Amino acid sequence: MGKKADRMNRLIDIIKSKNGASVKELASLLGVSEMTIRRDLIVLEQNNIVNNVYGAAIYNPAYKQEQNDSSYELSNAKNTQDLEKSKIGAFAASLIGPGDIVVIDTGSTTEMLAENIDDSLEATILCYNANILNSLRQKENLSLIFSGGRYHPKTQMVESAEGIDLIQSMRFTKAFISAAGIHHNLGVTCVYHYEIPTKKAIMQSSLEKILIMDSTKFGQVKPAYFANLVDFDVIITDSLIPEEWKKEIENLKIKLYMV
Question: How far apart are CA 44 and CA 72, in angstroms?
Fold first, then answer.
């Protein structure tokens, strides 16, 4: 059973035994961020395992597991988007080789990338997301750099002018970049404007720019523009990407991986 599935099992057990718990309480008990707990609870609610009531998670007594109460497996979840992100992250992680100098952007899919990096890999990685840092700090063979600054709890991103200066002073073989939307005319976008300077800095400092995003982001527009599609060398997404986007990416000579 994987780390995430194990956390889900513990989450269910805690909510069931306490007959409900707040996000803050669950994050403290499991030693993870509140954002991680919220994402886990979305999956559990979609599977009718818990109900969210006034900011607290309540166990759903009508839920019946097919085998054992303590054996909830993430792979059986109906949250297709989350599973696609996991596959995308795992494939992206496989592209990092020994000796690479890598920067990992903030985002839910890049968090999956960090979780899937092999424990034995010897590489240099810079990150600026608290959840990603928490995953990578357990991998003792990495040379890990964290650019500090102001903490944004909604995204787990940490950013500052000093952090951008650090990024600009370095050079990376690969940058793994996330996005919340990509549009034919309006380019590649993210949700928050504070993400823009850091995203632009990692792209300017990297040899290979790799965009990782699930197929639901194609055709979407978010408030903060930071790049054009042509600025990327590689795109990693899932197999549900619309055909029109496949053709556009092919025409732009961008390497496309569908996982």
Answer: 10
